[in-house]
Amino acid sequence: DAKTTQPPSMDCAEGRAANLPCNHSTISGNEYVYWYRQIHSQGPQYIIHGLKNNETNEMASLIITEDRKSSTLILPHATLRDTAVYYCIVRPQGGGSNYKLTFGKGTLLTVNP
Amino acid sequence: KAGVTQTPRYLIKTRGQQVTLSCSPISGHRSVSWYQQTPGQGLQFLFEYFSETQRNKGNFPGRFSGRQFSNSRSEMNVSTLELGDSALYLCASSLAVGGSSYEQYFGPGTRLTVT
After folding, report:
1. What are the residues whose beta carbons fall under 8 Å from the beta carbon of A5, sequence distance 6 or more?
2. Chain B within 8 Å of A104 (Cβ-Cβ)?
3. What residues in B contact A100, CB-CB < 8 Å?
């Protein structure tokens, strides 16, 4: 799997947008970018994923650069409950032995009141 | 729809003992994966089961094993427990019926403490 690089920590003010970057410069053409988050002592929570185009759901938006070497997860209006470790994961298309997720250290996002 | 459930939530065992953890996936999900999370190593993949067959295995010793039943429920077993096995064990399920992408949904985990 391609490796990802994320800042170890970020701060964000409550109500403001949180923009979490991820570098995946060695990503291959058939690899997706996934984002998960883990609130302290809970299981990771799926947020969003994408291949080439920008994606948006009720939780967040995912912006992938044209060359696909980096992406940004955007939480439009961060709340205190968004404080968590955010993981950016690159994974090949489904099938065979490719279903595992390889987690890095992620980014600890702290939302401040 | 009910989420992924794991039992027990907390467990204390002694070195040398064995332990069995259980995971019930989301209804309709056929793939179950197991992960170990420790402060030092982070989240590490253990194995994945689909239709009662192990499809993928991480880099863990043979003391770690698992199985999946016909109803997709899964168990993992750790024999001859060591202090280093103390961790949060997470189970994740997904549809995994093919196609280009899928999402994994995680349970709350089982916190295992080995003394």
Report:
1. A22, A23, A24, A104
2. yes
3. 33, 45, 48, 56, 58
Strands (E), B51-106: 53-57, 64-68, 74-78, 87-94, 105-106
Kindly tell me the sign of the dihedral angle through the C-alpha atoms of A94, A87, B23, B11.
positive
CB contact under 8 A, A103 and B43: yes
Per residue in A47-68, pLDDT (tens digit) is 999 999 899 999 999 999 999 9
Which of chain A's residues have a Cβ under 8 Å away from the Cβ of B109?
Answer: 42-43
By C-alpha distance, which of B96, B90, B34, B26 is closest to B65? Answer: B34
Q: Tell whether B3 lies on the interface with A, counting CB pairs under 8 A.
A: no
Model confidence over B30-83: pLDDT tens digits? 889 999 999 989 999 999 998 899 988 999 999 999 999 999 999 999 999 999
